């Protein structure tokens, strides 16, 4: 199995009605240097300016981004190239990130290389420390900038911390 931490920036709360603006992925290994970055042209006329502003892009900029089919195809190819066995999707907020990535894969490619499930970093951490209110974001080394590759890398750093310091049993070969 190979774990990929993924982060999504969007211009609204749900896929289809709104658009995924950009996303980043990091293969979880000791180096965290294998990354993917995608920027996707809007698929909807709808967007929420306040939500889009979090990404750091303007609507005009997003209208020059890449084709979603081509971007998702490149992402799928990158996942396959960097996977040893089944790829596992993990994120900070998989209720949001997974929803967009899964929808885009199925909508544009009619398949999802991650299958039908994902994992959430917070739930792993809370389970390890046996506290459902435990906070973990202070364990990131990379600043949370809303560049999705930076954010994915910071979250992957926490996963490595859980493996190395808290003895999380996870195979990252």
UniProtKB/TrEMBL annotation:
Regions annotated as coiled coil: none
Claim: Nucleus is one of the keywords in the record: no
Assigned keywords, A-Z: Exonuclease, Hydrolase, Nuclease
Record's keyword annotation contains Nuclease: yes
Gene3D superfamilies membership: Ribonuclease H-like superfamily/Ribonuclease H
GO molecular function, one term: exonuclease activity
InterPro entries per record: Ribonucl_H (IPR013520), RNaseH-like_sf (IPR012337), RNaseH_sf (IPR036397)
Exonuclease domain boundaries: 2-168
Identification of the protein by name: Exonuclease
């Amino acid at each position: 199995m190979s774990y990929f931490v993924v982060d999504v920036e969007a211009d609204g709360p749900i896929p289809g009605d709104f658009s995924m603006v950009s996303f980043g992925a990091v293969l979880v290994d000791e180096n965290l240097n294998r990354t993917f970055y995608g920027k996707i042209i809007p698929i909807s006329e709808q967007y929420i300016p306040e939500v889009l502003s979090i990404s750091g892009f303007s609507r005009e900029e997003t209208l020059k981004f890449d084709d979603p089919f081509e971007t998702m195809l490149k992402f799928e190819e990158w996942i396959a190239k960097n996977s040893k066995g089944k790829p596992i999707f993990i994120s900070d907020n998989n209720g949001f990130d997974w929803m967009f990535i899964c929808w885009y894969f199925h909508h544009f490619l009619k398949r999802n290389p991650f299958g039908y499930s994902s994992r959430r970093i917070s739930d792993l951490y809370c389970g390890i420390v046996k506290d459902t209110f435990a906070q973990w974001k202070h364990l990131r080394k990379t600043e949370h900038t809303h560049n999705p590759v930076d954010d994915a890398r910071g979250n992957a750093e926490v996963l490595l911390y859980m493996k190395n310091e808290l003895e999380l049993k996870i195979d990252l070969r």
